[in-house]
Amino acid sequence: MSRFWSPLVHRLTPYVPGEQPKIHNIIKLNTNESPYGPSPKALEAMRAASDDSLRLYPDPESLALREAIARREGLTPAHVFAGNGSDEVLAHAFQAFFNHGDPVLFPDITYSFYPVYCGLYGLPFETVALDAGMNLPLSGFDRPNSGIVIANPNAPTGIALSRADIEKLVMAHPDRVVLIDEAYVDFGAETAVPLVKKYPNLLVVQTFSKSRALAGLRVGFALGDPALIEGLSRVKDSFNSYPLDRLAQAGALAAYEDEDWLRQSVNKVIATRTTLATSLTELGFEVLRSSANFVYAWHPDRDAATLAAALRERAIIVRHLKGPRTSPWLRVTIGTDAQCTALTEALREILRLNA
Ligand SMILES: Cc1ncc(COP(=O)(O)O)c(C=O)c1O
After folding, report:
1. d(CA 112, CA 15)
2. How far apart are CA 352 and CA 273, in angstroms?
């Protein structure tokens, strides 16, 4: 509290990021980072970019990166926006598209930054309740709205909608932007990007933080009709013209072009996810079918917060989200095979001790 704050700052409820522990040797399965390092080509590109040219501002348009993304997707650079992590891209999108008087709609259990953006920009919002199986009933969006936001796959559940379902939603709301947050799409969901050319109201947001293992670099991007990209650029250039520094542009470009590395890394995560889901099920957890780099699980006989605390004592951190519907659940990032084995061994011991 401070008398110097603007009234809005008093009213904000900021997002609380997952813990980034200062201690080493911890098994960190709480913020959906990749357990593998980024593409060696990305690291090399960033080393090469670390020279005297850092005295100059970076390209404010991130054109080389946007061209590479556009080329791969059969789009033009005018369809691509790049920002400082997808969080920034999302924030700009909320400000650019969702202020039309009606509420913004998103699921009741989803990425908890969405309501925070609404608070920051003074946007009313309503939520659509996931059903008992944590699936999203599309009929819930049949009401007046200023825009729709869906994480696909959803976080923290990991459950994905099909592209056909997304298309139905986009078609049903032609006068509103439907934003699909595809932070985890590479781990097994159908991307909506092929629909971008067809629908001027679809915005797809992706990130380098998860499948490309570059959470520390802060690069995200959006794909949409050039008019939507222009809207985002107008907000960006009213906020920070240089969201991506020189190293980020060089590293992201090289990472984007290293498709072999991406495929190998994603395949390893998917294989470990299958093994982990089986092990957790054997320990009595119910595990949702995940298309992401994490699993969402709960144990019918155990308190999730207690389990998370017991894991923490054993130097393993997972994410427990408070809230009426999420408190029975644990969200566990897929680590290496060794990390996931350590997790299941620790859980086996905890469950036996408390039996
Ligand atoms: C659904 C979802 N969207 C967006 C983000 C933000 O990713 P970043 O800002 O690192 O690109 C996250 C991060 O965990 C996420 O879970």
Report:
1. 7
2. 24
Report how far residue 26's alpha carbon sits from residue 45's, in angstroms, rounded to the nearest whole number. 29
Q: What is the number of the ligand 1 atom nearest to the C-alpha of 32? A: 14
Residues 307-329: tens digit of each pLDDT: 999 999 999 999 999 999 999 99
**Cα(351) to centroid(ligand 1), Å:** 32
Position 229 scores a pLDDT of 98
* Residue 355 pLDDT class (50, 70, 90 cuts): low
Distance 206 CA to ligand 1 centre (A): 9
Q: What is the pLDDT of residues 87-131, one digit of tens each?
A: 999 999 999 999 999 999 999 999 999 999 999 999 999 999 999
Q: Is 206 in the pocket of ligand 1 (CB under 6 A)?
A: no
Please give the full DSSP string across 150-174, using - where no structure is assigned: EESS-TTT-----HHHHHHHHHH-T
Kindly give the distance from the C-alpha atom of residue 238 to the centroid of ligand 1, in angstroms, as a whole number: 23
Cα–Cα distance between 355 and 345 in angstroms, integer? 15
Express each pLDDT in 214-250 by its tens digit: 999 999 999 999 999 999 999 999 999 999 999 999 9
Rounded alpha-carbon distances, angstroms, from residue 87 to 20, 147, 163, 170, 266: 17, 17, 23, 22, 22
For residues 252 and 66, the answer to whether their CB atoms sit within 8 Å is no
- Looking at residue 191, its pLDDT comes to 98
Is the beta carbon of 185 within 6 A of some atom in ligand 1? no
Tell me which of 15, 20, 88, 111 to substitute to probe ligand 1's pocket, judged by most ligand atoms within 8 Å of the beta carbon. 111
* Ligand 1 in reach of 183 Cβ (< 6 A): yes
- How many angstroms does the Cα of residue 213 sit away from the middle of ligand 1? 12
Cα–Cα dist 49/250, whole Å:
7
**Model's pTM, two decimal places?**
0.97
